[in-house]
Amino acid sequence: MIRIIAALTLFIPGVISAIGIKLMRDALFDSFYPIFIYTGVQFFVGFILFLAGIAFIGGFIIHRDRKRQRLKQEQKKIIEDE
């Protein structure tokens, strides 16, 4: 059950990022949606959606790795190899 919730937690921001990419692509190729005033506004909204989705996914992964202490182990291996 927890894995399903975690998968949905990552799936929804992924969809938001995909929508952001689509809005940016459509703004570049002059496929204008009437809900936005200008194509520049459409591109900006798409960019914000894209960044928000990627930031959430990245933050989720970093939080999980810190919780399981995986980042500290990797940093120790790098220091020992030098």
The profile of the biggest β sheet is: none
Separation, N- and C-terminal Cα atoms: 42 Å
Number of strands: 0
Using the CA coordinates, give the radius of gyration. 18 Å
Strand content: under 5%
- Residue-averaged pLDDT: 84
**What pattern of helices and strands is seen along the backbone?**
HHH
Large-scale geometry: elongated
- How helix-rich are the residues, as a percent range? over 70%
Helix/strand structural class: mainly alpha
Q: Count the domains.
A: 1
Unreliable parts? none
Q: How many helices in DSSP terms?
A: 3
Question: Can you describe what's shown?
Answer:
α1 (2-28) runs antiparallel to α2. By secondary structure, this protein is an all-alpha fold. Helix content is 83%, strand content 0%. The longest helix has 29 residues, at 39-67. It has one domain. The protein has three helices and no strands. The chain is elongated, with a radius of gyration of 18 Å.
